Structures are given as C-alpha cells and as structure tokens.
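Practice set, problem 2.
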Amino acid sequence: MSPTPRPAMEPRNLLFITLDQWRADALACAGNAAIHTPHIDALAADGVLFAQHYANASPCAPSRAALLTGMYQHNNGVVRNGSPLDPRFSNVAWEARKVGLTPALFGYTDTAADPRIHHANDPAMHTYESVLPGMEPVLYLPEKPHAWLAHLQRMGYAVGTDMQEVYRPKTVEGAAPAAPSNAPTVFAAEHSISHFMTDAIMDYVGVRRQESWFVHASYIRPHPPFIASAPFNTQYAPNSVPAPQRAASPELEAEQHPLLAVYLQNLKQSTFYVGGQGLVKDLSAADLAQVRATYYGMVSEVDVQVGRLVQHLKDTGQYANTFIVLTSDHGEMLGDHHLLGKEGYFKEAYHVPLIVRDPKTHADASRGQRFGGFTEAVDVMPTILQWLGLPAPRQCDGHSLLPICHGQTPQGWRHAAHWEFDFRSTWSPNAQDALGLGLDDCGLAVLRDHDFQYVHFAALQPLLFDLHADPHCLRNVAADPEYAAVVLRYAQAMLSWRMRSNARGLTGQFVGPTGLVTRA
C-alpha cells in the first residue's frame, strides 16, 4: 500500500532586508518631513516601526556579525572589518536550515573567514567580504560587484571595473570635481546596483510561488560614494534638508575627546565622494548641505526599489505569506559633529531603522504602530527564528520582538540600548597608533537610555551626556562634580550589562548525579 500523501503546506516566506549606512531619521514615517520614502513608510504602516532601534557595533563587518549571530561584539569577537567570525557560533542562516529553508543571499554579508581552516594563499584570506556560512550566494555583490559591472557593460556603459570611475559624476569628463555636487551617476536609475539586485530577487521569488523561501536582500546603498542617479540627484535642494547638529567649529568639537580629535584630523573627503579633496571637517556649510541632499536622494532611490520588491510580492500572491524585516547595519553621521561615516560613539552612527511586518492575522492589531522601547540588532535573529518556529540558540544576547508585533510588550524589557566600537589598527589604519594605545586598549562601549548617554573606554577617559539638557551630545559632563554620582551609577550599570551578557556557551547546562540539567 502506498503511503497517504501529505497535504500541501502553505508557503512560509522570509524577506530579510538590510540597507547600508541608513540613519533612523532618514524616513518620513520616523517623523522627517523633509524626506520622501513612501514605499518603506507603507511597509511600516503594515507592520511595526521600532523607533528606538540601535545597531550594536560599527563599521560594517562588526555590525553585521551582531545582526546575523544575535551576539554582542564582546561575545562574537568581530571587532573590525576583517575580524574572522568564529565558526563555532551559529547564525541565522544555519538555524533557518533546520526547518528546510535555504537562505539565499543577494548582496553581501562582510564575513571574514577563519584563518585556522584556510591556507594563507586561499583567496578567502585576502578579503573581509566572504559569505556568511549557511547562506547560498545567489547574487554575490561585494565591494567590486562583478555581476553588476558586467550588466553595465552589457547596457553599453564604458565603466570598466574601477569603482572610482563607476561612481564618477556624469557631468565631469576626466577631471575630478573639487567639491560635492548634484551631478548624477553615468548610469540611469534603472541600471543602478539597487535596481539590478531587485530584478534578481524578483526573478528568484517569482519562480518559487508554491515554495517556501528565505531571501536576505543586502542593499549597499546609501553607502558612499555619495552620488545618486537621475532624477534622484536633484530631488532635494540643499536648503531643504535639516542642518547638521555640531559644535560651532571643528576645533571646539575636538575638545570633547581625544578619539574624536583623531577622526576630525584624519577623516578624508575622498572616502565619501569621488574626487574629494581635503578633510571632512573642512567642508563648507554649502558643500555639506549638498552632501546631505545627495544622501537623501540616495535614500529615496533605494526606497523605490523596496517598493518594487514589495509590489512584486503582492502581484505574485506571495505578500500574504511573507514575513519581512527591514533594517540597516549602521547609521551615517552626515555632518553631525563635523563627521561623515560611522566611526565613533555618537547616536547618529548607531540609531537605525527597524520595521517588522508579520503577515499573520494575530499581528493585525499592531499594524502601523511605533514601538518606543529600546531594541537592538541582536534582537533580529531571535525574532526571525521565533517566526520560523525555532528556539534562539543560547549564544543569542537579544530577545524576540514577535510578541511586540502581536501587541504584547514582554515583562522586564530593556530600558537602555548598548553598542560597542573598536578603533584598533588592522590592515587599514585607525586611531590606535595616534593615541599610543595597545591593541586591546581600543574598545569603547555605550549605554544610552532616555536620560543619559554614557561612554566607557578601555583606556581613555569616559564621556557622559545629559540628554535632557544636551540632546545632541555636544557637552561632556563626565568630569563635572555635579554629575559624579551619575557617572558612578552608569559605570556600574555598564558593568552589570557586561556581566549579564558574558558569552554563555555551556553555562546553562549542568552535569551531576541526576544527569544533564539544562536551565533556560
């Protein structure tokens, strides 16, 4: 007798979108009236916007390690771009495979391979952009995205493979611009890397309408170079975007802390736009306004692609079965504190968007809500796993946000956000040598709640900002005698956080006379 066939299971799809270098306030649904992001706003209206969400590390590789393993930096060990991710740790891709899903990667994960299991001549030892173990790279787009460059060449663009030339403004012929401009890219918006990747994802899910799938869509924009395709390059006038929050001069800003002074004296404009000359701190007010306007244009350009992808899911009947998480790996200073990029300890480099959209009916009551409690990147992996019906590994430092999406705030929810930043020098110079510090002296950790932001350094003086009196963190009061008790209280809270979140490993298991005992 032949076995009775199993009834067909309804597909359960998971779309995990990461946007690179996207600030939390660069969304209209987050309260920014100057920016136009209708498609991501619509996604937020159909899910939950986590308004106080923070990356746990910076730059790219450390932030993604925390996001993809659910572990704080001090536990996963990925401190800089190029820090290997220890293969003993699980990750969201390995876990998802336990329910029969093949996590498909479009983009990149910035995961450095383990040198203990690779020969020195292995190509994996010459890049920090290997693929997260467990991910299937359907469309791999690292820093030099050959698949997209080949596409541009097929479209007739003579761009070669030099990324400086690929992103050289269209209006400049052979000469580098002397200042930021609103000139467009040489390629049309429909040929951008974001459009190219979105097309590939749509093709992938379009032929899997009766199957469950897991797509990790890792968009690189609005990561620099700061340049947008037409018409997004002129969508925002420089005088229409909010002004940066900063001290009256770079010199006054530098007085805040030695680490900040190092970055102000070394951060180059050429890191952020093709042809840049001089230091970021020397950008004129007009040039910085143009950078900010261009960044807004890049944001709107990616917003359109997210909209195309979501609409495709609706058109193919898959939206009703698709769980969507949209977030960013880290933020962008965008001229605040006279900085660009994501180095340092300021909120702007860590406060990022998070939208979670659960298609199930028991999430209906929370659709369109803003959750004001603190959430962190380490919460994303447990959230995804719970939706897939999987427990979070004990290694995870975060907690599932799914109850919040169903209208329930878990008891004892965190009252602060935490992030870490390591500024040691590696294959790429950093602040370590300039400050005369040892390799393991170059860490900082931040604890931020609604009242204060406390920054603790391994070998430098701490910082404290009174967020009621100084919401933009312009005045360090750590040495003010009136705040001595506050510094002590926050230093103790930081220590308690580190102790509670120490790497767990087998600490929840006990072997004794009654056999193995496991405690949650």
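Problem 2, part (b): a different protein.
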Amino acid sequence: MDHTLAFWPPAVAQTYRDKGYWEPLTLGEQLRRWAETHGSRTALVAGDQRLSYAELDARVDRLAAALHGRGIGLGDRVLVQLPNDLPLVLTTLALCRLGAAPIMVMTALRERELAALGALAEPVACVVQDRFLGFDHRALAERIQAGLPSLREIVVVGEAGPHTAFAALDAEPVALPRPDPESIALLLLSGGTTDVPKLIPRTHVDYAYNARRAAEISGLDADSVYLAALPVAHNFPLASPGILGTFFAGGQVVLARTPGFDETFPLIAAERVTHTALVPALVPLWLQAREWDDTDLSSLQVLQVGGARLDAETAARIRPELGCAVQQVFGMAEGLLCFTHLDDPDSVVLHTQGRPMCADDDVRIVDANGHDVAPGEAGELLVRGPYTIRGYYRAETYNRTAFTSDGYYRSGDKVRRTAEGALVVEGRIKDQINRAGEKIAAAEIETLLVEHPAIREAALVALPDTRLGESACACVLGDDPALDLAEIHRFLAAREMPRHKWPDRLELVDGWPLTAIGKIDKQALRARLQPPLTRPTPRDYIEHRLRIIADPLQLATRLAQAGLDDTLTLYERDGEWSLGIGVAARLDLNLERVRIRYGEQEQSWALEDFPSAVDNALAALPINNWRAYGMARFELARRFHGLPDADTRTELLQLVVPEREIRLRQGEALLRGFSQQAVDHLAETLGRLDSNHPETIELPLRAVQAPVAHENSEEYQRMVAAAVAEIQAGQYQKVILSRRVAIPERIDPVTSYFAGRCNNTPARSFLVLWPGFSAAGFSPETVLEVSAEGWVSTQPLAGTRALGETPEEESALRAELLTDLKEVAEHAISVKLSFEELEAVCDRPSIQVSELMSIARRGSVQHLGSRAGGQLAPGANPWHAFQSLFPAVTASGIPKRESIDAIGRHERQPRGLYSGSVLTVDSDGTLDAALVLRAFYEQDGKQWLQAGAGLIALSTPQRELQETREKLAGVCANLFAPAVAANDHPEEACAS
C-alpha cells in the first residue's frame, strides 16, 4: 500500500472489513471467481466479438503477461484513453490483475489536461486508439511523451506506426506478484470543468463493493443484459453498476461505441438488453427518436439516468414512451452513490435522486460555515463511507480544503433531504452574480484577475443594486495601492471578457474574513462593503388597555370603516380581533430577493434559503415586541417545490409591521403605538365607536349576487375529467382544482366581511385593506400554527357536505360524509401527508395526531377534520415549518409537487391569494397562518370569488362541480354593495 496517500484510518478500515463491505480480493481475483462461477456464459459483446467469462479471464491473463513482459508491474500507472470497445475492458482488467493502476481518461481530453495529469501521476505507458471520431490520438500521445520523461511506451489500438501495437500484446500466462487488495486499483478523473481534473484513487476492495452493491440495488442478475452506452472510462458505466456490476451479477455486457439511438436501439433489439444508463441530456434524444423509430425495445426493463438532475417532466415520459422503468442515480467518482429504488413511488422516482446505497454512507448537509442545516433545508453535501475516498491522489494541499479534518468529502453539490431520506440535488454550491438578468460565475472572473501582475488574490462578490438587481464588486489583495477600476477593465478587455462581466466596483483589501472551514467568507465581505441598515435604538410600542362594551366583531368592523389608514389588516384568532394599522416596516419576497424596508431605509438579500432569509430579515427590524400581518400567495409553493415560475417580480410573501395596533377581546382592548399621541388618538376613536347603539345613519344595504352555478362550469368539468384521468394513470393521488367566478358589481368589503363572519364559524377570519388590493375571508382551517415555544400544529380538513336546512338534514348529511369512501379516503391521505411534512421539521418522537376525523362546521358546510402536531427540531425556525406545510394539503393535493404542477397546467391563471395564506407572525416566534379558501377578492377594479374541490380517482366532474357551487354560495350569500352613506351601520348586513 502507498502510505503517502490518504486512506481510511485503520480502525475505520477494520469496521468495513468486519461488516463484509471489503472482501480481501483484488479486481483481478474477482474476475477469476466470476470465470469459475459462470464459465461458459457470455460475459461481453463488442461488435462481432463475443467472450464467455472463461474466455475473458484467459484473454486478460495473456494481456497481463504481455504487459508484465514489457516492464509494467506492481504500483505503476498507465494512462488509458480508449473508446468503448474490447481493448478498453481487457486493458483495464489486465492492469488491475498486474497491480498497475490504469488512469481512466475520456477520449475528449486533449493536450493541456493530459500533460497535467501525466506530470502528476508519472505514467510509464499509455494505451490509445489510433484515431477516434476523426481525431488523431496517436499524435496526441506522441506530444505528451515528448514532455513527460516517465512515459516510456505508447501502445496503440489500430495502426501503431513506430509504437507498440495492442494486437501484438499476447503472451503465455505467468505467475504475477499479488497486489494488496487495499491498494489502488485504478485512478478516475474528478468531474471538474474549469480546472485540470483531480485523480481519484479507488482501491480494489472499495471499488468492488461499489459495483457489487450498485448491482444489487439496480436489480441486476445472471439474466440481465447491460448496454454500456456512455463512455466506460466514467465511473457511472464502469461500476455504478455498469460493466463491473454486471459481471458481479453474472450478466452480459454489450458495448456501444457511442450512445446515439442509431447505434444503441439496434443493439437493444438484437441482444435483448435489459438495463442501460444515460445522462439527462441524452434522454430527450431517445424519446424524440421513438416518435418515428419502431425498433423493438421491449426487452428494456430499466433506464438509469445520472450525472445531472433529470427534470420530472422528462422522467415521467420514459415509461410510456420507452416502455421501461426509470432509475435515478446520483453519485460521484469520489464515492457516494444514491439510487431511487425500483419499487419506489413516482413521487420519489420522478422528483428525487434517491437514497445512499449503503447503511454506512455517513451523509451530512451543511451551510457555508460547516454547520448542519435544518431538516429539509438545502446545503452542501458532505460524505464519508466504505467506498468514498479520503483524499485525491498526490494532492495534499488541495485535500486540506476538499476534505474535513474528520474525513468527510466536501462534494460541492447543493442538496436537500426529503422526509423519506432521499436526496434532491439543487445544483452546485453556486457563487454567481445576477447582474441585470445575466448570470456571472465569480470563479471565472477571479481566475482572470489573479493573472494581473498587481493582484495576488481576488474575490468577486454581489452587492444589491437598485438598477441592476446585483452589481459585481472585485475585492483584491495586492501590492499596488494605485490600482483602479479602469485598469481592471482594460485588463479584462484585452482578454476578450464581455463587458457585462466586468466588475462595477473595485475594493483593495489587506486581508480576508474566513469561514470556520477556512474559506473566504463572502457574506462577511458583503457586510463590510454594503452600507448597513442604520439601526437606531430599537423602538418600543406604548401600550394602553381599556374596557369596552361593544361586541369585538362589531367594534373591529366599525374601526375598519373609520378610515384610520390606507393599509389595514384585521385578523381573528381564538376570540381576538387584531388590527394592524399603517406601515412601520415592510418585508417583500419574490422569486429572487427578500427586501426589508424601515422608514427611508431599505436592505435586500438574494433569496437562497427561504427560512433563513425571512428570519434574518425580520431579525434586522429595530422594533421590539412586534407583530407582522401579511399574505403568502399560492405561487410561493412553486418555489418551495422547485417548479418553474416565469414571473420573478410578483411578491409572493408580504409582511407589514404596523405603526399602530388594536387588539380586541370581549370586554377589553389593547392599544399600541410608537407615540403617546398615536395611542391617545386610537383611544378617542375607540371611545367614539364603542357603543351598543352608536349614532349612525341606518340605510338599507343591497345584496350582490354572483353567477356561481354556471360560470365556467363546463370548462371546470373538462378540467376535472382530465385531472382524474391523470390520477388514475398514477401521476399523483389527489389534486384540488378551482374555478373563478366574477362578481358583476362593486362590493363593500367591510360590510361583506361583517355579514360573512356573522353567518360563519371559521377557524380564522381576516380582512385585508391594502392599496390596490382587498380581500376578506373565513378560513375553515389553518395552514399551521407555531407557538412561541416551537410547537407546530396543523389541521387538515378534507371531505365536505352541506349543513342542510334542518338539524335532521345536517345529521343525515354528516352520517353520509362519515361513510363516503371517497371523502374518507381523501381525508386519510391528507392526514398522512401532514404527518410526513411535520417529520421533516419536528423531532419525530414528539409528533402526534391529537384529533382524528371529527366534524368541523364551517359556514354552510361541514368537513372531516384532524389535527397533528410536533415540536420543532433543533436548528429549525417557524419558517422551516411554514415551508414544509405550505400550501395546506387540502388546497393543493398529494403529492404536493405533482399536484401543484397539475394546478399550474390545468387552471388558466395564477391563484394569487386563493389557497394561499393570510398570516400573523410575532417577534417571539409565534406564527399563525390561515388558509384562504372562503373569501372574496378585489384588485384593479375587478372582484371575484374562487372555490375548488378535492379530486381523487373516484371523483366525478358533476359531483366536484356541485361542491364548488356549495362553497361559492356560502360566500356569495354575504356580499353587499357599498352603502350610500360612509357611516352606514354594518349591523344591517346581519339582519338582511
């Protein structure tokens, strides 16, 4: 064993031996065992050549003897650059049998990369094709040899010229020194694209386990036929499970020189291929070819896709169009492999990259400072385990940052973990600047900047910019205090760098802030460079309590009518009507940024991690003991679930911290404001309105009707039928589809709110009167409730019947609801999903269902209702819970991602606030989010209602249309036109 390299610590290695992960055999000895077990069975098909396991073993023996005779032996390195053909397999196995490590090089690499790899690994020989795809690899090898003293011999497949012909390498087998099974078997290349790839040392024992276990999870057996279509020099088709995994299973390997359908489809048909693997970019080409190609692909059972994230829409096409299952594979040549399992549901197969394949894959997901992120949150993937390397080959300096001190490999992949334990790859840990819509990779500019003679180190950071969104600031460490931005621009222009990538600002620094893991802390740099939000001494609300005699609902409504401010939010919770009046601070969040405004000051951040961004923005408020009122639009869920949304400007979450506040309970009012004058004014207004019989002009109010029965009814039924067909086809289990109904004339939102609340028994009610937008509603349930102590609770309602006209009719409808299989099934799957979503953010032992399938009366309808809750896990904040539970399952469907995607496809326009949330959040961590369903809306002179129904496989268009009619009628019955007089008394609405 080469003890200059980074191997597993002895105690860890012994654990892997004891658990049976590492068998004490070299790959050459594994081949011998395969030949003894499978003998005459076909092992490999390459063109017109077919080798049995016994023949393959014998050919490898003879090639190993010939290479040994040419001086290649134990511990040597050999550069191998060959296409998918028999010589590549023979050479790789023969070198492993010799104990000489092949350096597996893609045929696309050229002189710059090969020269650097050669200087690092010092190969004694190289094996190349004479020409491949029109390129002269023999000439390339000659150029490399000219600058590489260690390279003694060039072996050429094909026309060898003055070099050794591969075809001539044949000798009688001889006894060879036995390699150490825990020594390096082969060297793979890292996946870097901007730098020379690093060399990945894989040992015989870890790589054998890699291939063997991958074959098990992929369902390979002795009857399997694996098509190696991707370049075999890559880890995926070589051993994940690839060629080696197929050999472990006793199956047959078929080699394709290219992955194009013109070559692979005939091979699949002729050899009855059962398994193959592609990268995502190739899948659409295969699918497109099937539109006109009728080659018999019926033998194909599994298409593995890896190397990058496969989008769910393409993944969903594979089974119907190619006739086989899709298995997502996520991994790295450095080790870790994740697979979706062949029996996983579509929600896992289509939308995740699978689970780690070994119980001892030790995975962490961390933030920029190396701290574990909260459950469900995205971060960098760190891993160690029985087949993940502990260091790159001869890269001691680089290894100090690529690996943690306790042996975790820093993958650079940005992932999050689902409640099921599967990983979802969000991309790489990005260091980008979004300047006027153009994405600029910081590393690209930094690499050029350090080539300037006056710059020793450089970091490019993004700063908020009102015009550009983000501007680029170059921070440089150097020796020339006169260096200016104009010189940087001239320097980059001379290197043909596009103008939009030039830095907008230059800062000379004398040192770097560093993270806990020794990287430049760009967040700290931004804080230094960005003018901080000037935080005065935190403001406190002045509070005053007084007695009231009016009913809180009536008094809250009169206050809403009093014109206290053009921004007012009323929120009812547990017997308290809370009014937020005016704007002291405001938070706005869209797809790209979260922005906080306080007075004349503003600060914004790129939106990377939703829970942390919102929590940090609110923490910056210079106000004590605040309560914020706001709205979350349904389309925020598309961001949470990684679905595309073209409109990056729409505010998806808006929160307002009010200048003044009134909280009303029976017999008591709490007044809050930043000045005594403001509180006194509230007290005076309250005193004037606080009466059971205030002096007002009472004029009759006129009810407004909307065409709830027929508007959009035919279109809605067609939409329902299409979605039910998708459910029956297994695309998802449940979806809530809605229809919008216009209100033909203006309504009075305050009076209509009061009337609706008088005639409803909601879990929450709200009234939003903001500039340009108003809404009022009666929430049948909450999306979630979070206490100051971190207890999370949610109440899914699913399953609906009308209340009926009499107690007897209500009782009969209730009995029908409790025994309706469709409604009970709909409710059960909603409760199950709520429980799973709580598991993502709560301590699992704390999660409980405290109420199951009770009846909740809400306005004119009754529902099946349950309640589940749990304690937030350490490191999670209320916004983690919001992200996990929003939108309410009863407003979207199951699984949420697929149902939200279906809603976007079937409904004609964004939902906005409908099925989103009106919410309050307090500085102590209390968060209360009401589900917006039974509501009316007004914006830009248009008023409307919206209602939906939950669809499952048993649903019918007529029944679901009737459910929307019942829900819409319950809201429509309480709509009233504006009063003739401004001080019209709202109680008239209750009596009408």
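Answer key, part (b): The chain has a mean pLDDT of 87. The radius of gyration is 34 Å.
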